[in-house]
Amino acid sequence: MIFSSPVFIFVFLPIVLLGFHLSLRMPYRQAPVLWLIATSLFFYGWWNPIYLLLIVPLIIANFALGRMIFAASTPQLRKLYLYAGIVLNLGTLIYYKYAGFLLDNVNAVAGTHFDIGTIVLPLGISFFTFQKIAFLADTYKGRVGRISLADYSLFVLFFPQLIAGPIVHHAEIVPQFKELRKQSLVWDNLSIGVCVFLIGLFKKVVFADSLSAYAVGPVFGSAAAGDPLTFLEAWGGVLGYTLQLYFDFSGYSDMAIGAARMFGINLPENFNSPYKSANIIDFWRRWHITLGRFLRDYLYIALGGNRHGNARRYINLFLTMLIGGIWHGAGWTFIVWGALHGTYLMINHGWRAIKGRLLPDLKPSRLGTVLSIAVTFLAVVVGWTFFRAESIHSAFAIIAAMTGANGIMLPSVFQSVPVLGPLLGSVVEFGSMGDAFGSIGQPETYAYIVALLAWCWILPNAQQIFRSYSVSLSADTSTPRWQSLVFQRSWMWAAAAGTTFAICMLYLQSNIEQEFLYFDF
Amino acid sequence: MTSRKFLLLAASVAAALVAAFGSFNLWQDDFGLFWSQQPKTVWVREKTTKYLFAHRYIPENFEGLLMGPSYSDSFMETRQIEGYRIYNMSMDGANATEIRDVALTALDAGKMRFIIVCLTPYITKDHGIKGAEINPKEYWGSVFSLLPLDVLKAKWAAGSKADPERASAWGMTSFIQRPHMTWERFMKSEANGSNYYADLDPVAVEHLGEVLKAARAKNVQVFAYFYPYNRWFTDSVDAAMWKRYRTAVEALFEPGRDVVWDMTGPEYDPVRTDPGCYTDAHLSAAGARMVLADIKRVLDQHLNGITAPLPFAADDPAVCYGKPGQGSGYDRPQSTLGQKVSMHAGKAADAN
Hints:
The complex is a heterodimer of chains A (521) and B (352).
Chain A: H1 6-24, H2 31-47, H3 52-71, H4 75-110, H5 125-140, H6 149-157, H7 159-162, H8 170-178, H9 186-224, H10 231-262, H11 280-286, H12 289-300, H13 309-328, H14 332-358, H15 366-388, H16 392-402, E1 409-411, H17 420-425, E2 429-431, H18 433-437, H19 443-458, H20 462-465, H21 491-508
Parallel strand pairs in A: 1-2
Helix pairs in contact in A: 1-2, 2-6, 3-4, 3-5, 4-5, 6-8, 9-10, 9-21, 10-15, 10-16, 10-19, 12-13, 13-14, 14-15, 15-16
Chain B: H1 3-28, H2 46-53, H3 57-61, E1 64-67, E2 86-88, H4 96-108, E3 114-119, H5 138-141, H6 146-157, H7 183-191, H8 202-217, E4 221-226, H9 231-234, H10 239-250, E5 259-262, H11 269-272, H12 285-303, H13 345-351
Parallel strand pairs in B: 1-2, 1-3, 3-4, 4-5
Helix pairs in contact in B: 2-4, 4-8, 7-13
């Protein structure tokens, strides 16, 4: 069951909400928590009930290990239980996510023919594995108090965040479960939650899914088939994917945050207009924030962070991003993507250090900021090419086409533009629309991509729009450029919400293939 | 404004918009699903549109179906087959699964007298719905989805009048001819033609068989013809693969009951050796006219007992060329007009 399906919107969510509010009135204190656990298990089992047999025992085992760490009499025993938990969780993840990839590589190197058949990746395993490891690590460090099995189960299972995050930290969500019964702003939470959910739904079904069909699939598919791409096709496909991924995942996160808010629970912010980043360090504070936070707290710092000198710091940065790349998927393209971002971060930190020493008083100008955003965006776009491509070879082929290696052909309409036409004519070719745009379709697609880029760069994000209502934990509530876009309960906003819902329904009822990109990770 | 009032207002706006859009589309009834009796043309998404037409518009207005991929679609204006009301249900890029799903919907109404299947390896090379265009969800999607909006957009762009050369109420949808395609390039491309005929998918063959079985079960007469590929194409195919395809497909038909004829036979060479009859592997307007005339000949013979000769002379050196308004527009060298075309010309061009 995905958030953007009619069965979720019209059946599951209303029933769970109704049951939840009824459970709040029941005398049994844990009733709302148990109701949410039961419905979250149903939500997870809807996809494939067999994987309930994986997630439930894992929850029980992790809870038991947490208790054992908590109660262990010696540091050695505590460490032993922690390692047992890490092996259990990582072992499960490695089996389901990486076994095939590892065997393929062993077979390729050793010339063997091991085969373990097809292993279906359980939904959300990468996300809940991180949550459980963080819980065990924090228990080991004495940062976790006593917690009930019901609260722990809901921390892992709570359906809005179960399958694609945000990756929730126990310290920020378990205390909220204890406050569930104290809810007094039921309608307030519902109205805010619905509006945030609608923003996410709109981003997902209107923007992300249409980009997939018109721009991304055909271009990456052609590259994988070895067809040479033109300059415009390559840029169209890669920019299309850059936008698709953002709208898909941030849309999903908004829906998760909105759905949780309907139950009076605030999830952490996951995206903060990442394409407005002026450098890669900034980008990783804005893109998939909860993953970046986990990698920093439980990997980078565990590797030593910046405590052992600059050289080790850079190596740790690189390794953290490399592992972050592997976390996204079992494939060399993800490894290259992680390595690329590790390199970017090393360069960015190095540049900061040099700049701090040589030009300590240099303040960024407006033009400098714009250029920084452009360079950062370009670096991210190159990274996404590897992230999406079928192979490293096809990623390089797309990047080559983006540099004009296959020639640059522009639609002949540009030829007749005064001054620009003759000027361009000296460096590019002009061709018929069909030839220049090829499989990616019509010029409208490019206009659409440009409009969506403008959307990303100019408009405020959901957290900024709802800045007065703290829709997510630790959200950026800086004042957006356009004050009129800040949410308030007015008839205008009600009309906008109603119209957004109607448009989303129009798209949902249409025959557009829906996929959540991060379900694969 | 209270949160409760806010939610109520938002829900009312959404409901009003959905109702307004839905009512407008019900009133338009672009797919003839609810009340409209007007002739319908394909404006967008041919497969979806013809699937929706198959629910009501086709069974209520036609007695026969022509089904196949683009080969029997482009320029195949079935209105030209006088004496019969045949809907051209062919769809660009369709395979046997897609043809089956649309055909079974049209046959369900039980009003068809006959079907004509255009047999080409293209429809049996793969199976499954491509691009999810044929989906029962589209029935109500015709009222509330992007589909009616796309139709509205297409109508607006065309000034609400369909180009009769491009699409007709009888199902034909034609492709733009390729002005850059010279006669020599045509022959070269055909001789180097695609080898999709080698990919015979048994599931697709089965799906094609399901259409024939459903037709027979409803006492619908089955006609089928092997598409008249041009000679440059058929001469370049692997004979063993081609035979494998023919054997698998011919086994689906019941001799003595179904009528199957072969337009790749030597008697069709006047058409198959004239580039004027083709735009590429597809028929030109003139070529389509020849095939339509031949379909009429076979229908007349089996449904009305009227026997007639082939619609072209065996010694006509240019069946489609040089006939006013019928040529495909290729730049055929003047020197070759009135001569039989050398079957090796394509190979020679290739070698060059």
